[in-house]
Write a structure and sequence with these properties.
Elements (H helix, E strand, L loop, with lengths): L5 E3 L4 H9 L4 E3 L15 H19 L11 E12 L2 E3 L5 H11 L3 E11 L5 E12 L4 H11 L18 E5 L2 H5 L3 H13 L2
Parallel strand pairs: 1-2, 1-3
Antiparallel strand pairs: 3-4, 3-5, 5-6, 6-7
């Protein structure tokens, strides 16, 4: 199966790395439009599809196409959220105080990480899916939290942590896909790609 001419609609270095590990050739064209604010888990797919549509429009300009072609590139967009309930979503902390508040909230509790992925075909049709992983944090000390924030400055991380960093030591156990927490659910992505290519 060939995954050539995949366009990653994300500037995330973690998603780029995962695709590279999978041997999926791709170029990176991040969405430039202002994304809709995620207020609940239900509109996660809408944001992923929004990113795909924006990069789709960019690709048409790049390719100097008056209309979509029926062969060639495939856009992959994704969006990940960390949340403790359907309406309590933890975004990227603005400063050390907010990062500490988030980690204190996660300490000793469970939370969910969901990633929506969207594949957009050259004819404009889309296929989307969501993966959810449940994560249990052990009880953290205030010193652990302060040291982590000072060392890793997780201000670009939803929920104020990255599982691939030493924050993995905060985790008691996980239920579900590990790579989903990194930012791209591998099993779901491969399954969705297989579905896409089987219908071409």
């Amino acid at each position: 199966m060939s995954y050539q001419e995949c366009i990653l609609a994300s500037a995330s270095p973690r998603r780029h790395e995962i695709l590279s590990w999978l041997g999926i050739e791709h170029t990176v064209i991040p969405s430039k439009a202002e994304e809709p604010r995620i207020t609940n888990v239900e509109n996660l797919i809408q944001v992923s599809e929004f990113k795909a549509k924006d990069v789709y429009a960019q690709q048409l300009v790049i390719a100097s196409e008056a209309k979509p072609s029926t062969t060639g590139w495939l856009i992959l967009a994704a969006d990940t959220i960390v949340y403790t309930s359907a309406t309590r979503i933890l975004g990227k902390p603005r400063d050390a105080a907010e990062a500490a508040s988030m980690l204190e909230e996660l300490s000793g509790n469970k939370h969910q990480v969901s990633t929506a992925i969207t594949l957009m075909q050259p004819d404009g049709t889309m296929r989307s899916a969501v993966e959810t992983t449940v994560i249990y944090f052990r009880q953290l000390s205030r010193k652990e939290i302060q040291n982590y924030i000072a060392e890793y400055k997780p201000y670009d991380k939803a929920g104020a942590y990255a599982i691939q960093e030493p924050a993995s030591l905060f985790i008691e156990r996980i239920e579900g896909c590990y790579s989903n927490v990194v930012g791209l659910p591998v099993a779901l992505l491969l399954k969705t790609l297989e579905q896409y290519y089987s219908t071409r």
